Amino acid sequence: xxxxxxxxxxxxxxxxxxxxxxxxxxxxxxxxxxxxxxxxxxxxxxxxxxxxxxxxxxxxxxxxxxxxxxxxxxxxxxxxxxxxxxxxxxxxxxxxxxxxxxxxxxxxxxxxxxxxxxxxxxxxxxxxxxxxxxxxxxxxxxxxxxxxxxxxxxxxxxxxxxxxxxxxxxxxxxxxxxxxxxxxxxxxxxxxxxxxxxxxxxxxxxxxxxxxxxxxxxxxxxxxxxxxxxxxxxxxxxxxxxxxxxxxxxxxxxxxxxxxxxxxxxxxxxxxxxxxxxxxxxxxxxxxxxxxxxxxxxxxxxxxxxxxxxxxxxxxxxxxxxxxxxxxxxxxxxxxxxxxxxxxxxxxxxxxxxxxxxxxxxxxxxxxxxxxxxxxxxxxxxxxxxxxxxx
Length: 391
What we know:
Blueprint: E1 4-9, H1 15-25, E2 28-33, E3 36-41, H2 43-52, E4 60-67, H3 71-80, E5 92-101, H4 108-127, E6 138-146, E7 149-155, H5 177-185, E8 194-197, H6 204-213, H7 235-247, E9 256-261, H8 264-277, E10 283-287, E11 301-304, H9 312-315, H10 318-331, E12 336-341, H11 346-350, E13 356-362, E14 365-372
Parallel strand pairs: 5-6, 8-9, 8-11, 9-10, 11-12
Antiparallel strand pairs: 1-3, 1-4, 2-3, 4-7, 6-7, 12-14, 13-14
Helix pairs in contact: 2-7, 3-4, 5-6
């Protein structure tokens, strides 16, 4: 089967997490750079990556790349690419987005219109027609310019992959599903460990953790743009990938995942989102202020996105809020705490310097992922009658 180079964009600073996900799916990494990872795969890989990747924003199918220092060169080199290998005569196509970083060509709208025109001119010569109805499947094109190097790709995902389909109700300043999943994967948390989010909002951290625990693929309950690309991806490939993901689900798993928020309406919304995701039985949501945070067991995880003063009037409350978070964390026995926030004074008021600190861009906002590491739990003793490596 024909192979492609596929490009998966992600949040800046989380490329290593995405790389591991791609390798775990069984695909060969061809390149990792700021905000994206590229890998080699066939039609099946397009389906499995869209359904299974938790941290990618979308999956793009690369058509070609080349240097361009002028608009004339951009037009000519775009026209040289074999667009007919990807776009049938009936294709509806447009350049949905163009980005330019440190390149001589920097006008997104001009790049978009010129690439579209070049593709049309190419297809005119191949299909021997002067007009295209564009009444078939949609093939959105994305253009990336980095230091005068142009990359053109088709967007196989359609809606961004962070739209899992479960978050019908959102709190103010929610964290995206892809970012929440990536941050959880940066921690040592596993499904048999405790996870608590004391500022759970619409429930994204607990829900993403529960999806992982039950091995529910993030794209299992949504659709993708490339499902209509029968010239490139046979329908059976999508059905096989959905079947594979469905068979892997384990709803019998036992978890200790909890989400708290001081706002009762928000907690109701979180419960509804968890129900839509099919994991409401795996999460305990409760209206509870951070000042009342406690847990009787050891070796748990706090993973949370506290308020960080999006509005000026909120900023005056932040020192007390982060101080309370630090005090309550200090009362938990042998726990670890992971906090993503844009609040620069977080460590000061939590009362402890983070063991690790990772800079992550949440959209255009610079945030910090503070990691306060607790001790590892003791290894469980193997029963005396059990042989090493036994079942």
